[in-house]
Amino acid sequence: MKRTFCSNRAEVDALNTYVKLTRATEKITAETHRHLASADLTYSQFGVLEAIYHLGPLSQREIAKKVLKSHGNITLVINNLEKRNLVVRKCNPTDRRFFSVDLTAEGDALIKKVFPRHAAGIVRSFGRLTPAEQHELARLCRKLGRGTESG
Question: Phi then psi for 85, rounded to 5 degrees?
């Protein structure tokens, strides 16, 4: 016997879409992050290295915002990257209470090695969609993420 907990069509449609979006996200994430284990990196560590690689030195607060992690979690991630000599904290010359986080030579070499494989995995995963479908998906995700009616 099939049980139905949804009270109306809008609820059924929203829940169905949510499940499909979540499953697709989890599948693509698993596919594109599998290679990180060979570099002994967690997804959060990769996110920090990638953000600094593309944006330059950042404060911990900026990094947390970019990789969607809490400030406490980012502190732990950066501590672990620092222990591996992949990043270094540098005192802000204008305000010594704040630090910026930058790549070391080892961190730069690692992200330069790992990022192309990561990007290729994303391209491969999204290759299931036409360019027009990718643009439409991006537009819809932006609309959904902003929580507004306009795209």
Answer: 60, 40
CATH classification of the domain holding 55:
1.10.10.10
* Residue 4 located in a structural domain: no
Q: Which residue has the tokens 């090695």?
A: 113
Q: What is the pLDDT of residues 89-143, one digit of tens each?
A: 988 777 777 789 999 999 999 999 999 999 999 999 999 999 999 999 999 999 9
Domain that holds residue 138: 31-146
d(CA 85, CA 8): 55
Cβ neighbours, 10 Å, residue 125: 16
Q: Where are the alpha helices (DSSP H) in the chain?
A: 9-33, 43-55, 60-67, 71-83, 105-126, 131-146
Distance CA 107, CA 113 (A): 10
